[in-house]
Design goal:
The complex is a heterodimer. Chain A is of the alpha/beta class. Chain A contains 19 helices and eleven strands. Chain A folds into two domains: about 170 residues, Rossmann fold, CATH 3.40.50; about 240 residues, Orthogonal Bundle (N-(1-d-carboxylethyl)-l-norvaline Dehydrogenase, domain 2), CATH 1.10.1040.50. In chain A, helix 1 links the parallel strand 1 and strand 2. Chain A starts with a strand and ends in an 18-residue tail after the last helix. In chain B, the strands form three sheets. Chain B has a five-stranded mixed β-sheet. Chain B has a four-stranded mixed β-sheet with strand order 8-11-10-9. In chain B, helix 4 packs across helix 16 and helix 8 packs across helix 13. Classes of the chains: A alpha/beta, B alpha/beta.
């Protein structure tokens, strides 16, 4: 697929701007950056060069506004729509661009979870074969995942060519995902994050938010603890993702997508997370310039200093990971029967199970969830967790021993773990010694 | 006839990893690379214990300056913290700045050739991301004559290799723009090659010729004279491991006789200070005559010449050092290196590819590991194990690993063993 000219609509948003940088650099494409006003577009252009650390691509980036749509769209081989995550707004944009589209121009939407089928129906039948979901992760320069989702009308040959382009030219880690709410990465990732949030409410008297984050910290296979991730992403975005999944899917983990009340209350108070100054956490600047991190105490409804919890299992795991004793680190975890170690083990096992179930239902193959979670979230991928636990037999034994009976009754663990291969990812770099 | 030295294989860590960010230290680094290396060559820690009982095994550790980066010396003995199997195993650290890996390899090869041991484990490593960029540059300044060339100078090495660029332009009366464009192409080729290498530090990074030529901007700052960031190798954490063995060991322990052998080597030391190098070479055709001599020594010992070498791994700590390596290898005569660059001869699909791995610019440069990493890459290419970056023709490969401002020069040739055991 020869893509020389791209129009990014909504290019001043975080993803629009970043994706424009990817097209202009790796893709060496001329990119029209369409924004509401020219000033915003000019700022986005500079920002886009910085996202790929290359000012030389600035000549490929052309600031434009919606008034220029006719010129941009008619000259483009690919349109990347990255406007606000609202189907009526997206459809409005589609109505505007449809009349300018050249035959064979591909249209990709950056939606992180709206129905591709529904959105595609906004176009007439001639255009629909060229429309698909192209969902990248933030920031795409570091996170190479690209979830590509065809609608029922997408032409298979165009989809195939687009996958090749994304893979070989833009160097994306491409996974074709079925048209399901939130696609795959956010479905698996926010299952974990939202259930962690529910646990924070359940364990509010043990400390709540920072208590759960300390149990599921970087030593469990991620760069950032789950509730810190939610705070970073924004509670409003988190809610939009889990509501979409909760309202439009129905699998065994359905109830884990229900956002807890305390978080809904924080959103109503505009305490959305890092972007609004406070949310689950609150960063306060001290007079010497250093920062104190406070945490929202669910039990009292106030912010308080973050606790430095010392759980023996976590301390021991971190000590072992520091010197590269991975096997011993997992033995420290699985041999520990404290409430905290049990929560940690259960979360890791449930993550694997949900990952495998999801990959089988909406992914290309058994490795899809691994690719998605490693390259989109930078989390240890599900199959690699099984490897870290000593392989399938050992993993299954621990799962049966440590998961609650009512959970096991909802799933067929033998079937889920049947013929599960080793991961293509090395689990070691994911488990941080902190 | 010289006794054959066999290369059994090894492993390297993913140079993209930042071990400080992972909260892990040198023991974790060494455990991973040794675990992986032993697995790849089919040796266990139990085998090490048994071999050591018979005094047949020794370890050789290459590292430049862990005393500064991680507050640790006595690095040969440190292997005992990796695994008790190393208790009693002869082991020492070897240092020659960025050529530390090669001096460890040289010592190992010598001990095997002398039949003191039958198998040698060589580990090169450096953890550099423990400090900020400025401190890192200052530590590396100790590879020059620190008192004169390092103290109080920000990033001394980019400045020294910037001076090499200036001296190259002057000596060969080169067109400056064309020369700098050649350097940009060297950089882009290394970044592009690294995209095929799963262990490369820059596998996700973007670089093209326009960006490499845009020196003096905020995304490609000038760092040493005319050189920009794009001309510079990376600050990297990493380790590499290789095992080499005697013919006796291979005959008695290995089922395959397909192992490549070390065919030649060269080791020459130039004047420590850069200005003295230039003074000494002023009447010589080669700007770095001792680098050239190390290459010639390796050719002589291997009874080979440049026509016999299918590919090269060179020490592109800066693009200006790869430029002069082209003539040092004999690919072109000195002053005409541009021909090999502009005609694509040194590109991945050229007739004399340099750095299919991505080199120090693309793959990364954990200084004490780089020599061992190059040696491992020669092994991988010759044995067809380089996966995504495998060359079509790779029977014989040459590596050049330099320390300081091309002060220590080490060259090895590894090639297919034409005569079966």
């Amino acid at each position: 697929m020869n893509i020389k000219t791209v129009t990014v609509i909504g290019a001043n948003g975080t993803m629009g701007c970043n994706v424009a940088g990817i097209f202009a650099s790796f893709g060496e494409a001329k990119v029209y950056m369409v924004c509401r006003d020219l000033e915003a577009a000019k700022k986005a252009r500079i920002k886009a060069t910085m996202t790929v650390k290359a000012e030389a691509i600035a000549k490929n980036l052309i600031p434009k506004t919606y008034d220029d749509l006719e010129e941009c769209i008619s000259k483009s081989d690919l349109i990347f729509e990255s406007v606000f995550e609202d189907s009526s707004i997206k459809k409005e944009v589609y109505r505007k661009i449809a009349k300018y589209l050249q035959p064979h121009t591909v249209i990709g939407t950056g939606t992180s979870g709206l129905s591709i089928n529904e959105l595609s129906e906004c176009f007439d039948e001639k255009i629909r074969p060229y429309y698909m979901g192209i969902h990248m992760y933030n920031p795409p320069y570091n996170m190479t995942l690209c979830e590509i989702t065809p609608s029922q009308y997408t032409d298979a040959n165009i989809l195939k060519k687009m996958k090749t382009y994304l893979r070989s030219v833009l160097l994306r880690n491409v996974e074709e995902i079925k048209d399901e709410p939130a696609f795959m990465g956010n479905r698996i990732g926010f299952q974990f994050i939202n259930e962690a949030m529910q646990y924070a409410e359940i364990y509010k008297d043990n400390g709540g938010i920072d208590y759960i984050d300390s149990i599921l910290g970087p030593f469990t296979g991620r760069t950032m603890a789950p509730l810190s991730t939610s705070d970073f992403v924004g509670l409003d975005v988190h809610k939009a993702i889990v509501d979409n999944i909760y309202n439009n899917t129905n699998d065994y983990a359905h109830e884990t997508f229900k956002m807890p009340r305390f978080a809904i209350k924080l959103i109503s108070e505009n305490k959305l997370g890092r972007k609004s100054g406070c949310g689950l956490y609150q960063a306060l600047e001290n007079s010497d310039g250093s920062k104190t991190i406070n945490v929202y105490d669910i039990a009292t409804g106030n912010y308080r200093a973050r606790e430095k919890y010392v759980f023996p299992f976590a301390k021991q795991m971190i000590q072992e990971l520091k010197v590269g004793n991975y096997t011993s680190a997992f033995e420290r975890l699985t041999n520990n029967h404290s409430i905290e170690a049990t929560i940690c083990i259960q979360f890791l096992i449930k993550y694997v199970i949900y990952g495998l179930v999801t990959t089988k239902s909406i992914g290309e193959n058994i490795y899809s969830a691994d690719n998605v979670m490693a390259t989109g979230f930078n989390w240890v991928p599900p199959l690699a967790v099984i490897d870290a636990f000593g392989g399938v037999n050992s993993f299954k034994k621990i799962a049966i021993e440590r998961l609650p009976k009512d959970f096991l009754s909802k799933i067929d663990i033998d079937e889920i773990l049947r013929n599960v291969p080793k991961s293509n990812f090395d689990y070691r770099p994911f488990f941080k010694a902190k | 006839m010289q006794k054959k030295i066999y290369v059994l294989g090894g492993a390297q860590t993913d140079f993209e990893r930042n071990w400080s960010k992972e909260g892990k230290g040198v023991i974790a680094l060494l455990k991973e690379v040794i675990d992986d290396g032993l697995r790849n060559i089919g040796l266990t820690y139990g085998d090490i214990v048994e071999l050591n009982k018979q005094d047949k095994i020794a370890c050789f550790v290459g590292n430049f300056i862990a005393e500064y980066y991680v507050n640790q010396g006595h690095l040969g003995a440190l292997l005992t913290e990796v695994n008790p199997a190393f208790y009693g195993v002869p082991s020492a650290r070897y240092e020659a700045a960025c050529a530390s890996g090669s001096v460890a390899l040289d010592a190992a090869i010598t001990k095997i050739r002398a039949e003191d041991y039958e198998i040698a484990l060589v580990i090169g490593w450096e953890l550099m991301k423990t400090v900020d960029a400025k401190s890192c540059g200052d530590f590396l300044g100790r590879a020059a004559f620190y008192e004169d060339e390092g103290v109080g100078i920000d990033f001394p090495f980019p400045k020294l290799f910037g001076k090499l660029a200036d001296a190259t332009i002057t000596k060969y009366n080169l067109d400056e723009k064309r020369y700098l464009d050649n350097l940009a192409k060297i950089s882009v080729t290394n970044f592009a090659n690294a995209k095929r290498n799963p262990n490369a530090q820059t596998k996700k990074w973007f670089m093209n010729e326009a960006q490499a030529k845009t020196r003096g901007t905020s995304t490609n700052d000038l760092i040493g004279g005319k050189l920009g960031i794009s001309d510079c190798s990376q600050v990297t954490d990493g380790a590499a491991f290789v095992a080499i063995a005697s013919e006796k060991f291979v005959k008695e322990n290995c089922t395959s006789n397909e192992f490549p052998i070390v065919k030649g080597w060269g080791h020459r030391v130039a004047p420590m200070k850069f200005d003295k190098k230039m003074e000494e070479s002023s009447a010589n055709d080669y700007i770095l005559p001792w680098t050239r001599q190390a290459v010639l020594d390796a050719y002589r010992r291997a009874n080979m010449n440049v026509d016999d070498i299918d590919f090269f791994e060179t020490h592109d700590c800066f693009t200006s050092s790869e430029f002069v390596a082209i003539s040092a290898f004999g690919i072109t005569v000195p002053g005409h290196e541009n021909e090999a660059i502009e005609n694509g001869r040194i590109a991945f699909d050229g007739d004399k590819p340099i750095n299919p791995s991505g080199g120090l610019i693309g793959c990364g440069h954990p200084v004490g590991a780089s020599g061992v990493r190059m040696f491992l890459d020669l092994f991988k290419q010759v044995t067809g194990k380089a996966e995504g970056y495998q060359l079509k023709i790779a029977d014989n490969g040459m590596m050049l690993n330099i320390g300081g401002s091309a002060t220590t020069n080490y060259v090895f040739i590894i090639g297919r063993n034409e005569v079966s055991l």
